[in-house]
Amino acid sequence: MPQPIRTAISGIAGYAGAELARILLAHPQAAPPLLLGRIADEQGPTPLEHLHPNLARKQPLPLIEPFSWQLLAERKIEVVFLALPHEQSHQQAPEYLAHNIKVIDLSGAWRLQNPTNAAVYNLPPNPLQTEAIYGSPELHREKIRTAKLIANPGCYSTSIILALAPLLRAGLVDLAPGIICDSKSGISGAGKTPSPKTHFMYAADNLSAYSVFGHRHTGELLEQLNLLDSQIQFTPHLLPIPRGILSTIYVKLLDPTTPAAVEKHIMDFYASSPLVRVRPAGTLPDIHATVHTSFCDIGFQLAPDGKRLVLVSTLDNLLKGAASQAVQNMNLMYGFKEEEGLA
Amino acid sequence: MPQPIRTAISGIAGYAGAELARILLAHPQAAPPLLLGRIADEQGPTPLEHLHPNLARKQPLPLIEPFSWQLLAERKIEVVFLALPHEQSHQQAPEYLAHNIKVIDLSGAWRLQNPTNAAVYNLPPNPLQTEAIYGSPELHREKIRTAKLIANPGCYSTSIILALAPLLRAGLVDLAPGIICDSKSGISGAGKTPSPKTHFMYAADNLSAYSVFGHRHTGELLEQLNLLDSQIQFTPHLLPIPRGILSTIYVKLLDPTTPAAVEKHIMDFYASSPLVRVRPAGTLPDIHATVHTSFCDIGFQLAPDGKRLVLVSTLDNLLKGAASQAVQNMNLMYGFKEEEGLA
Amino acid sequence: MPQPIRTAISGIAGYAGAELARILLAHPQAAPPLLLGRIADEQGPTPLEHLHPNLARKQPLPLIEPFSWQLLAERKIEVVFLALPHEQSHQQAPEYLAHNIKVIDLSGAWRLQNPTNAAVYNLPPNPLQTEAIYGSPELHREKIRTAKLIANPGCYSTSIILALAPLLRAGLVDLAPGIICDSKSGISGAGKTPSPKTHFMYAADNLSAYSVFGHRHTGELLEQLNLLDSQIQFTPHLLPIPRGILSTIYVKLLDPTTPAAVEKHIMDFYASSPLVRVRPAGTLPDIHATVHTSFCDIGFQLAPDGKRLVLVSTLDNLLKGAASQAVQNMNLMYGFKEEEGLA
Amino acid sequence: MPQPIRTAISGIAGYAGAELARILLAHPQAAPPLLLGRIADEQGPTPLEHLHPNLARKQPLPLIEPFSWQLLAERKIEVVFLALPHEQSHQQAPEYLAHNIKVIDLSGAWRLQNPTNAAVYNLPPNPLQTEAIYGSPELHREKIRTAKLIANPGCYSTSIILALAPLLRAGLVDLAPGIICDSKSGISGAGKTPSPKTHFMYAADNLSAYSVFGHRHTGELLEQLNLLDSQIQFTPHLLPIPRGILSTIYVKLLDPTTPAAVEKHIMDFYASSPLVRVRPAGTLPDIHATVHTSFCDIGFQLAPDGKRLVLVSTLDNLLKGAASQAVQNMNLMYGFKEEEGLA
Question: With contact defined as beta carbons under 8 Å apart, do D179 and D232 qualify?
């Protein structure tokens, strides 16, 4: 049996960090991850279960430890997962690379190549920007295998890009009327910091649209799907549920077709993608189908005219939309089965 | 003080029936309503609080009573609210009219004039069909005043029609690319009968799209907004909340305009409508804003190009989407203030 | 018709303040209340709907205004509702009284007479303490009529005291084994300030016990029910719902009795209390029955041994547990019907 | 490596059946389970994902198959999990045993030895009744290893018995005043059949007590904790969440003690139990801590008097309260690590 891979997670306090820890602690090919977090920088080594009681076991878990380059060297860390605000990721990723540690970054810091799009993150330019690989395994599997810096996709972006890529790449979509992406996400997408919008009294029994014409994930749609801003419109909504994203996507096809043809087209596209499940024509996934799983599910309904198409995709924003996709990228980078530790 | 109006509610067991009872029991211009329900036909007079404990007071409430024409005559009922399945409403409405009792029907039985649209309800033709008035007070205020048979609008339809009417009636919308209506409704919209879809375990923490390209409310959109089927697309979703609808509506304007102009246009349209609240440009209503109220709230965001417009409307599906709108119609029919008993 | 009463609400930003505004704006015997809030002290007069959009109407609402004694004098304010942290209430109540304005305080500042109990609030002694009347209309109706300073009861306390008072006052309860009060409250009880415990991700799909053997409402139970600390035990829990309290209360009776006798005893006790509904023996209220109402519901189940009794009481923590009870007190103070504006 | 164990699951449609399938499909020591279900008896072999879409993978899952003894023989089934109504379990368990197949029954059919207690299930007497082993691994580990018929404990019972056993077995509890168990369970405990009580509109935002003095799990408490009916009182409540149980348990100790002593006592009791986590004194588990895990968590708070004790235990009713505990029993029966496939 090969040597288990040695990983670190930086930013263990948040929801994505906790999911990364949960996945990597059980990953058959990985040693228990080195856990790094601000709490340990401030208070010294801290049991993981102090932050995440549901991860506790009877046997002691790894401690969260204060960051030091010496510690990373001692542990022979090969790859780090950054689950940090994008400003910190942008600063730290080059340092890790300089220490010969590969980086899988879960923030938005390295996702955008086009400076106009990237401007939404207010980050200084960095030559590394163009070397980062957008970590969508279904679209960039080969490049990911040899990548040193992975920009793990946004949660909304993943749900939209995976639904649209098969049709757009085949040139089947009429771009003139514009594609509408109406997405709905659970509250974990808004992060762990308490705020008026994440207060139970605001979020529960409610639904709200936000960042209309202005959400940061839009740039990923443009770049990955090769579209102009006028060709796609994305509206996120805040759902009163802990986790899960459902995107309802409206497209027009250039030529009338049949449900069977659309189904075959999408199924073929994802035939060798273990973490995308395509539903039979006319069958739509709901959020339940993917929550607490690493899958993205895609279904569709074609209008009787054979041209108007509604795609519905769902995923768990913390898993396929964040931590699972990050580990999927790691699996590719280290030659493991793509879904290792994720099914 | 004038004689209080004498009303009856038929179909008291469901959610809309309960809301009608609650509103009419407190209506300043109405006598306590006569309550009719299958439970009383089967078991004899039944206290209302047996079905709806939250309506109980210390003083006895009206009983639910077995239906008889003699009873309606004795009580001198002037108007009946039908909160029944559409098949029953279709059968009973003509009988009430023949007994000189006006009808406000909350089902879909009488909403559609075009036989093709109406076919979704599988009802036999009835000459009354063309005499029914679509009970959208904001659109048909004058006709409602003299109506004998009101077809109270669908809950989804109300949220969409009120958002779109100001722009469509003014001819400002580019119909070529099609209007997209992505609507989300709380579970009460699915009715009181237990089913796999209304089971807490299915509905909670979930979201699902349904009836894509096939929901019965579509016909109301076509007829009331004067659109072709190819010009508007409506997708309902089931939200994990008890009540409330939010519709996200995507339109393109024919000519570029400013947020201020759109705001003024919609505000002017509803200037004398007491139960529609228009938000300032760029401010979107959420579901909380209208739940347990009789209002429909409308907000919008205009793209920087001045042409792509996202409208968001919200309402309580059991109130402005059902019971409150029904009482609003009654108020118009009897010359009361439009919002009497509703604010 | 008599002159409408002139009221003020201080502390309009929180949940109880909003409910007070909603109730008083519609109260038949009250002029629109003067609204006072920190936001106006900081920013000048502010529309109420900026803080509470669901209260908006088409006609302008009263503004929230900056506090000044001159303003209160001009408006001839007779009574003020304090919906403030207890430290502020403790400081402000005497000042209002000195200006000849009656006070109904919704905080815990004035509820406790016994200095040991009151110590949990860390407030300096004040001679007014012993003049405050505990605003439980069902227990102290006569004293409330002439009170100048009302200490509105705690939400948990109300649900427990109303359930236990009939049996305890009649000396029917065996105090030796101790009374157990297991209470569960919706999140609004935890206040509007965002915190880790009120974050949707913590609160949703969860349940937790807290402040075991140490909740501040315990003192009210001891004083109002005339019990020793060893005779009653109160454990609050945080429910994943916006509003509502259910208390499950375990008592042993001194002598075996029948369900009918218990039912008659409690019903007689509340015969002239318009806002307490007593359920028939063996019928238990749930939270739905009282949410968005001003009622406290009480039910019970007696063991076959005729001695072990489980009482269940429910109420809306923001209404009968706060704002409605406060207005009920005002109604008594000014000679209105006790339930005026509350049913 | 030893031969993987060959299991069957009968009753795959419900929530516990689905969790059993999920666990056994990933169990390192088990072959993929044979799935048996009424749907296959009626319609022939049926893909598992038709009933449980969230279990789907890209590779085909085992089909649900029609029951036949021949099929069980061909597959060499060694042990069957019965996730059926108790009447069916009572009938089928002896037949499986007669075919030399061990039985782990998740219903209440075989849990109770005392005929008075067992009478609540209305089942005819069966000599096997006294041979069934109550499948609480923490209490009956040794007997389970050699058992042929396991009565898997009730979900509520598990949460209460595990919390109380350490103190009761050591004779530390004063039984005179009686033990109070106030339990709260998510809706999955009410089963998958749609009913008015499991309708989202009833369950959501609600809480209700039920079966006071009459819940079937009471007998398990009496028998496993060796108590008289007058010594323990159990009240279940329906929580508005999908899964999870929290029990708040009130006991009095015979002699005053310290938190540290109570903590040590409970921790020692469960020192070699991998699926019970004991919290430090004064730290209480919430439902989140155990949902989607196989753990039961126990915490407590001791009153300043050193005698009144509140225990809080939580677990996932579908896992440690059902499917996980069943697999834990299987692990013991076949000599695997107790927590194999469960952590």
Answer: yes
φ, ψ dihedrals at A267, nearest 5°:
-60, -40
Alpha carbon of A151: minimum distance to chain B alpha carbons (Å): 29
Contact between chains at A57 and D343 (C-beta distance less than 8 A):
yes
Check if D53 contacts B (Cβ < 8 Å): no
Q: Name the active-site residue from C79, C82, C118, C155.
A: C155
Query: What number is the ipTM of this complex?
Result: 0.96
Q: Which residues pair with D297 in a beta bridge?
A: D277, D314
Does B320 touch chain C if contact means CB atoms closer than 8 Å?
Answer: no
Backbone torsions φ then ψ of D204, nearest 5 degrees = -65, 145
Least CA distance to C203: which residue of chain A?
A: A200
Closest-CA distance of chain A to residue B173, Å: 13
Nearest Cβ partner for C195 among A188, A194, A205: A194
pLDDT band at B60 (very low <50, low <70, confident <90, very high): confident
Of D179, D196, D286, nearest in space to C184 by CA = D286
Q: In what order do the strands lie in the sheet with A102-105?
A: A46-47, A63-65, A34-36, A7-10, A79-82, A102-105, A149-151, A133-134
- CA distances (Å), D103 to each of D9, D27, D141, in order? 10, 18, 16
SS3 call for D115: helix
| Window C:210-249, CB contacts with D under 8 Å | 210, 212-213, 230, 233, 235, 237, 239-242, 244, 246, 248
CB contacts < 8 A, A to B, total 126
Output the CA torsion sign for B53, B57, B58, B62.
Answer: negative
Report yes or no: B203 at the D interface, CB cutoff 8 Å.
yes
Question: B200 and D192: CB-CB below 8 Å?
Answer: no
Nearest to A54 among D53, D58, D289 (CB): D289
Residues C40 and C65: beta-carbon distance below 8 Å: yes
Catalytic-residue membership of A155: yes
* φ, ψ for residue C34, nearest 5 deg: -75, 125
Residue C311 near residue C161, CB atoms below 8 Å: no
Could you tell me which of D118, D90, D116 has the C-alpha nearest to residue D105? Answer: D90
DSSP letter assigned to residue D145: H
* Among A230, C136, B273, C179, residue whose Cα is nearest residue D233: C179
Please name the residue of chain C whose CA is at the shortest distance from the CA of residue D244.
C206
Q: Is D207 on the interface with B (CB under 8 A)?
A: no
Torsion-angle region of D20 (φ positive above 0: left; ψ -120 to 50: alpha; else: beta): alpha
Active site residue ranges of B = 155
* pLDDT, tens digit, 9 for 90 and up, residues C208-253: 999 999 999 999 999 999 999 999 999 999 999 999 999 999 999 9
Bridge pairing between strands D296-302 and D308-315? antiparallel
Model confidence at A105: pLDDT above 70: yes
Residues of D within 8 A of B194 (CB-CB) are 194-196, 198-199
Q: What is the 3-state secondary structure (H, E, C) of C29-59?
A: CECCCEEECHHHHHHCCEEHHHHCHHHCCCC
Cross-chain Cβ contact C237/D184 below 8 Å: yes
pLDDT tens digit sequence for B112-146: 999 888 899 999 989 898 899 999 999 999 999 99
Helix (H, G, I), strand (E, B) or coil at A308: strand
**Among candidates D184, A24, D134, D50, which has minimal Cα distance to C286?**
D184
- Name C74's Cβ contacts closer than 8 Å, sequence gap at least 6: none
- C-alpha distances (whole Å) from B124 to each of A340, B119, C72 are 59, 9, 66
Contacts of residue D340, defined as CB under 8 A and 6 or more positions apart, other chains included, come to D27, D28, D29, D331
Percent of residues, chain A, with pLDDT higher than 70: 100
**Cβ–Cβ under 8 Å, residues D287 and D127:** no
Task: Determine contact, residues B230/B180, Cβ cutoff 8 Å.
Answer: no
